[in-house]
Structure formats: C-alpha cells, structure tokens
Amino acid sequence: MAVKALYDYQYPALDTQDKFHGNQLLYVGWDDHFMFAAPLAFVVPPSTKFSELVENTLTFGFGRHPEWAKIDFSKVVWLKSGQPFVPEMDKTLAEQGIKHKDALRLQTPGLNGNGTYF
Amino acid sequence: MDMKATKKKLGLKEKYAHMTRGLDWETTYQPKEKVFPQATFEGIKVHDWDKWEDPFRLTMDSYWKYQAEKERKLYAVLDAFAQNNGHLGITDARYLSAIKLFLTGISPLEYVAHRGFAAAGRNFPGVGPRVACLMQSIDEVRHAQTQIHALSNYNKFYEGFHAGASHQIERLWYLSVPKSFFDDAFSAGPFEWMIAIGFSFEYVLTNLLFVPFMSGAAYNGDMATVTFGFSAQSDEARHMTLGLECIKFMLEQDPDNLPIVQKWIDKWAWRGIRVLSLVSTMLDYMLPKRVMSWKEAWEIYFEQNGGALFNDLAKYGIKVPECIAQCTVDKEHQSHQLWLTLCTHSHAMGLHTWLPNAEEMDWLSAKYPNTFDKYYRPRFDQLRELADKGERFYANTLPMLCQVCQIPMLFTEPDDPTKICYRESEFQGEKYHTCSDGCKHIFDDEPEKYIQAWLPVHQVYMGNCWPEGTDPTAEGFNPLAKYLEWCHIDLARDGGDYEGSSDQANFAAWRGAATQNT
After folding, report:
1. Which residue of chain B comes nearest to A1, CA vs CA?
2. B35-353+395-468+478-515 in CATH: which number?
3. Is the minimum CB–CB distance between B463 and chain A shorter than 8 Å?
4. ipTM value
5. Does the CB of B416 have a partner CB in chain A at under 8 Å?
6. Pairing of the two strands B416-420 and B412-413
C-alpha cells in the first residue's frame, strides 16, 4: 500500500549503492554466536573475491571468537536471504550475484560456543 | 476613580465556553478545507467537531496559574538538591547511565512532542482538540526544559551529560531509535500523530516509561528526577485523557474510521514497544537498586492495565494489537539481548555499561527463571572471563540495523531464542531488512516512507559522519574515533565500561570524602 499524503509522495531511497564510493553494503551473520549481538554490516568492493571476503573482511569482524579459527569452510552452510547458497570462493561478489545490501548467514554445524550460543 | 464591577465573575463552565469554543470563527476569505488541508487526507471522516468532549475544560489563565505554582515548587527542590550535594546521594554512579539515556534519548523527544502538538493544534479544524493540543504543546516544551534543568546539576560532576539535546540525538546510533520514532509520527498527518503519540505512547505505554524511571529514581536517591517526574505527572494525566478522547471521537464519528484507527494502533503499539525496549535494560541492568523486573513492569502496566483499556475499546470494534503474541515471548528475552548488545558496543556510546555481578545475576535468574540461566548467564560469564583477562570484548564492526525501528538486528525468532530474526523486503529493486514481523509489516505498508530512513551505520559507511574537514584517506585515519568526535563523545571519559571510568573514580572519592576522614 502507498503512503497517504497530500501530494504525489516519491522520494529516492537514501542508501542506494551509488552513495558508497564504489563499494557495496554486505551483511553477514554467524548463526549461534551471540558474542556478536547482531549480524555485522560491511562495506566491500563488488570486485572482492569470496575467498578474500572470508579471509580478510569476515576474519576481521569475527576473528576474536575462539571458534572462528576452527571453522572448516568446506563444511559451512551459507544462506543468502534465508535460502541455501553455495558461494564460489574464487569468484567475486558481483560474479556470483551477491548484491548491495544482501544478507548472508553462515552456519557452522558443531560450533555453537559449546552449547552456550556465545 | 474605581471601576465598579457590575456582574459576578463567570462560572468555570461559562468561562471555558467563552475562552475556547467562543473564540472559533467561520472562515470567509478562504474555504475551510483550504485553511485546514491536513484534516482530511488521512481518510478520517468527521461530521461534527462540536461532539469533541474536552476532558479537562482548562482555560489558559488557570493553566498558567497551575503551571507557575508547579514550577516554583520544582525549582525550589532543584536548588535544595544542588545545595545539599544531591549528586552524592545516589546509590552508585552506575545509576546515572539510566539518567544519561533519559536525557539524551527522551528529553529531546519532549521537544519534538511540543512541535508535533503545536502542529496538530494548528491542523485540527475543531476548537476542542485545538485548545487541548495547544496546552499539551506547552506542557511538552516545559518537560524538555525542566528535565534539562533538573539533570544539569549532574553535568557539573559527571561525564556524558554535555551534548545530548544539542548534538547527540541527531547523530548517535542508539539515539536514532527514539528520534526516528518521533520523526515517523511527526511526518504523518494530525490524526495519525494523535494515535501515535497521544494514544499509543502517552496512554498505552507511558507508564512503562515514567513509572519505572520515577520509581527507579526514588529507589536510587535521585530527588531531582523524582521531582520533575511529579511536576510532569499531572500534565501526563491530562495527556492520557486527550489521547483517549481523540480515539473515541474518531471511532464515534464514522464507522469507516475503524479500520484506519486499528491499523495505526497496530503500527504504533509495535513502534512504541520497540523504543521502550531500551527501558527494559534500565530496569533489569542499570539500576543499582532494583525496583521490579522489566517482565513484571510489562505484566502490570501493559498486560493488566492495557488489557482493561482494550476491553473498554472493544465496544467500538477495536482489537488488541496483533503484536501482543510476540511481546509475550519477548518480555522474557529483550532486556538481556539488548544489554548484551550495549555491553559489547559501549566503546561507541556516551554512557557506561558493565557486566552484571554475581548478586545481580542471581536476581536476574530469580526474575527470569525460564530464560536467564538457560540463555544469558553463560554469555555474561564468558564476557566476564574475557574482561578478567584484560580482553573486554567490544565489536569492531558496525551492526546491521532494522530499517524501521533502527535497533541493531539483535532480536530472535519468536519460536527460537537462539536464532536471529531476519526479515527482508524488496522495493523498487532495492533490499530492505527488518528485525521482526512487526517492523516488516510496517515497512511493507509504507515503503516510500522508510526507504528514506537515516540509518547511522549506513551514514557512517557513506562517510557522512566525521567532523568537517576530515580526510578519510589520511594515514592512520580512525573512523570510530572520528565518528565519536563528531558525536561530541570523549571516549576516555564518556563511554566504555563503568569499571575504571572517571565517573566511578570520582564518585568513590567524593563519597569517601563525605563519609571518611582520609
């Protein structure tokens, strides 16, 4: 439904990709790890390879958790917009259709802060 | 020569009629709908504005008299508080985090409420609501002022009180939550404003804000806050009555108004509850001497009192807001989830947080037997373990925010408190994320509005949140430090853990000097 207004109510979205200086927003949440209270928001160039995303960006954000180093990335279950998603490590975000403001989740079976979800 | 009074004074009722309704007039230069363009576009049909019952029948002259009397008393108490070193009488300087949150998050909203009710008063064609909104508008600016005055005494002694209303409300990430709430209401039409603020906030939810704050202040020795609370209380009674009168008026005027009003109640109950979730951390974590748990406050002030209210409104066809099922789940979790978030982000805040001590965690276990030990105690234990090793954990990356309530996406699925709740919408090819079914529903109903949301995390990443002249390409550029500078926060003094803060050291030293000889 549209906004009820006194006039034709059309304004541009505030957070479109062109405002991020060549980068895109990307949200990543690590399921079962509430040391990070909410999913993290990153800005990255769309030309980032997925492997670089994991090794640099995500490791910076999540690396302080002792379980981060134990993740076997060949067994991680990824979700994009809540749906199963199989990333290709040597392809860029753009090449595999990971767009501005996409939300990824990674699930690491067996790792959940020893049952505390920390 | 003395003037002789020829007639007796007017009775109250007569005086009221002359000074309010008697002052109305019919427009002649312009048609009425052009003078009051905002009165109709929301779809609310009004057939007879005179049917509006003015609950208080207050005239401006008696209003001034009452308010002046209250001001005299308030400022006398504030003087006494300052002269008696009231800043040392509080239980513990940790208490002040609650007060800082109030001053930075709530007092500026009183000011926005002042503007909003002034606008509503201008935009309603009826005299009754116009006069009532005018008085509420003046009340609200008085509240903003008296709150700032009452708390300014703390500003002389403690950190974090210096820039709430002037800079931080428009810049700080956690203050965008209350700010965007009021912006949303103010940018709606006058009837929606009345449901949003007059009814949902001032009537349904206000007790959840004011009662815990004022009781919390009384329990923790803060006479300044207690006093402005009392001074505002009689105004609040008037505001509640106005909110209720407004909703009844809309519902009685035309049956077509019911679905519109119901939609607004659903929306604003949820918006208000999300904002008030910040108060839940105050009751459960910030008060050194506890009053009641958030869950208990919720049960008394929302489930019981609110339940009675909705029973009354049922005769008009109004139903209890849809979000109540979710709230019943959330009351067991939200204060813990939020305080964990604040604790891991207070390196980017203007107030202190701390990890609850053993005695406080036992209190939480007793108050939350279903959830605290199962989910939250282990997380605090692990944060404590890190802190004890000198590795107090703060998140180094900004959190994802909800597009509607602007709170970090920290809330969990209704049926699984171990899974973050993700909701997603698409509008004009762009993705938008929300924290709950409630917020998603609000977004989907008016996406054109919420796509304009000023989300602090995104603004930081766009580079809009540094002091003028900052060069983000310079070597050693520290975005967090620059962001905090822009927010007028001196992290070494204003934020971080209470342990080791200057507030803690000063309070201990001054209190020590007052009670010991060395």
Report:
1. B445
2. 1.10.620.20
3. yes
4. 0.97
5. no
6. antiparallel
